[in-house]
């Protein structure tokens, strides 16, 4: 059996190979043959490739690397209809991401290929980053840092009308309450915040057990001094926070988005920030990535920006490889996959 480790410069091919080798060594027997492919992300931005989005590399190089492979472990490789059609021996694509957005699941199913993913791989990292962005935005850390470095000692930032607020006693609204949102809630409650969550798929009893109040989205926006986005981007959630909903925020509210740029309608943001209706904005994700030179928020006050780094820790890379390797182990042993994305696929006559 041949396995292709199609990694990149974050989840490296060697990391994937080592994790899979360790997983399979527990079962004894001969280890599979590995081939490796290194995709250019993050040195080159990911983007759409044919019909899939958020992919890295090309169909041609992937097809060539897949020659003879039954399994591929990857983070970003573009698994399109063309790739599946050109790889008849392929049986499993194990994606080391929270969602297999770089895979055409319909094509995988038609070609009898199982696709797994790695939910929760970056949850601790993304949650910590979201909390960090929130604190930086509330306390104007980035602006004060920039001013001091250019030689300005801004003592006036201690003036009553300039200072920020505290998380203790504040109402924090989380839009989306999955693995990341739950960790953020735990940290925010430790600060003394009252936490609201809006998520139509959340279990009300589990949310209540966490000490979090489950509410409708409009209610959350109207009550929250801080709003942090943690939903998945789908057709349903695209521009979930549009001009109307942004207008529900209390004056001076802080908005944080470290999930996906498409959740937020960026068009109203410059005026909301300039008018003070929105107190601060912290973004790690954008509607267009990388952001263009004429980006409308570039010179707007009280905006903190980072280049899509929320999940970027070494622990995330190791968790991603480990979760993916465990799925490969289950597949090789004939066990049910724990994180199967296309449950209707048939492989070798089995379900």
Automatic annotation (TrEMBL):
- EC no.? 1.1.1.95
GO MF terms here are:
phosphoglycerate dehydrogenase activity
Known Gene3D superfamilies for this protein? NAD(P)-binding Rossmann-like Domain
Q: What is the lineage of its organism?
A: Bacteria, Bacillati, Actinomycetota, Actinomycetes, Kitasatosporales
Enumerate the spans annotated as D-isomer specific 2-hydroxyacid dehydrogenase NAD-binding domain.
132-310
- Keyword vocabulary terms for this entry: NAD, Oxidoreductase
Write down the species: Streptomyces globisporus
Q: Which residues form the signal peptide?
A: none
**Source species, domain of life:** Bacteria
Stated name of the protein: D-3-phosphoglycerate dehydrogenase (EC)
What family does the entry list?
Belongs to the D-isomer specific 2-hydroxyacid dehydrogenase family.
Q: What class of enzyme is it?
A: oxidoreductase
Where does the record place the D-isomer specific 2-hydroxyacid dehydrogenase catalytic domain?
A: 52-342
Q: Which Pfam families match?
A: 2-Hacid_dh (PF00389), 2-Hacid_dh_C (PF02826)
Q: What CDD domains has UniProt attached to this entry? A: 2-Hacid_dh_10
């Amino acid at each position: 059996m041949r396995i292709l480790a199609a990694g990149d410069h974050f989840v490296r091919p060697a990391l994937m190979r080592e994790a899979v080798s360790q997983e399979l060594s527990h079962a004894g027997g001969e280890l599979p043959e590995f081939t490796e492919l290194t995709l250019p992300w993050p040195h080159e931005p990911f983007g759409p490739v044919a019909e899939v989005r958020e992919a890295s590399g090309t169909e041609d190089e992937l097809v060539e690397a897949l020659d003879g492979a039954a399994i591929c472990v990857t983070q970003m490789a573009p698994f399109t209809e063309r790739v599946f059609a050109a790889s008849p021996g392929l049986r499993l694509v194990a994606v080391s991401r929270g969602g297999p957005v770089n895979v055409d699941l319909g094509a995988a199913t038609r070609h009898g290929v199982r696709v797994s993913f790695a939910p929760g791989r970056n949850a601790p990292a993304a949650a910590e980053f979201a909390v960090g962005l929130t604190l930086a935005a509330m306390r104007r850390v980035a602006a004060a840092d920039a001013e001091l470095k250019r030689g300005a000692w801004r003592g006036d930032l201690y003036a009553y009308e300039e200072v920020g607020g505290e998380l203790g006693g504040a109402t924090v609204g989380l839009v989306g309450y999955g693995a990341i949102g739950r960790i953020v809630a735990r940290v925010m409650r430790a600060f003394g915040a009252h936490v609201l969550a809006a998520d139509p798929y959340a279990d009300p009893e589990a949310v209540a057990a966490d000490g979090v109040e489950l509410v409708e989205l409009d209610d959350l926006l109207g009550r929250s001094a801080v709003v942090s986005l943690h939903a998945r981007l789908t057709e349903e959630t695209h521009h979930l926070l549009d001009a109307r909903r942004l207008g529900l925020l209390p004056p001076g509210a802080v908005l944080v988005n470290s999930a996906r740029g498409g959740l937020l309608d960026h068009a109203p943001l410059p005026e909301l920030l300039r008018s003070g209706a929105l107190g601060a904005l912290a973004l790690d994700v954008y509607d267009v990535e990388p952001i263009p030179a004429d980006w409308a928020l570039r010179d707007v006050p009280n905006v903190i920006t980072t280049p899509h780094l929320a999940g970027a820790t070494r622990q995330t890379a190791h968790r991603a490889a480990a979760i993916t390797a465990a799925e490969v182990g289950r597949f090789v042993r004939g066990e049910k996959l724990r994180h199967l994305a296309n449950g209707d696929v048939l492989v070798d006559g089995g379900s």
